[in-house]
Amino acid sequence: MPQTACSFETTGKRGPLRYLLYQPESGDAPHPWPLILFLHGAGERGHDLEDVKRHGIPKIVEEVDEFPFMAVSPQCPPGAWWYQFLKTLAGLVDHILASYPVDARRVYLTGMSMGGYGAWHLAARAPRRFAAIAPVCGGGLASQGFPAKVRVLREVPVWAFHGELDTTVPVEESRRLVNELRACGGDARLTVYPDTGHDCWTRTYEDPALYAWFLEHAR
How confident is the model over 211-216, as a mean pLDDT? Predict the structure, then answer.
C-alpha cells in the first residue's frame, strides 16, 4: 500500500524530520486508528525516504493488501543517532495525534538495530506515551543511564526480539534490559532466534503475532 512522504518542522538545529506516513484504507482498521511509530536502522539514514522502505514496517505495508494501523516511519539524518532526536520524535507523535484520527490509547513503538536502541530510549523518556513497545536487536546505552533507566517501563508491555548469533548487537543487550524489567515487576518478554544473526527483523515484522500482540494493549 502507498506511503506519503511528509516533513515535520522542528525548532531544533537539525531542521525538519522527514517521514513516511501510511494511512489504512477505509474498513482496513479500527477507527480511530491505532498507530505504530517505526525507527529504522543505521543503514537507512540519509535524505532519500525510499531507503526507509528496505526493512521493517515501511517494507511490510508496501507488500500487504491490508495493514490495520497508521504507520509513521521517520528518517534519521546522515551521521546522526535516534537518541539525539528523542524530543523531536515525541513531538512528531503529538503532531500525528493532533492531525489524524488516531486512537491515543493505542500508540505503539518499534525499531530495529539502531532503531531498537531508539525505541528503548524513546520509551524510557516518555513511558506514558506508548501502549506497548517492540525493540528489535537493540539495547540501551550506558552513557544514557541504561540499564537502570529501563525500570521506568515496568508498566509498559515490552516484547523484544534478537538473534542468538548477532555479532553486531550482542543478544545480551536485549537480555540485560528484559531481565532488568522483570526484576522490577515489568511485563517483558524476549524472543531469541537461535539460528539467526543481526537480521532478526525480517522474521519479526513478517509475523502476524506481533501485530496481534500490539492490539491486545491499550493505555
Answer: 98
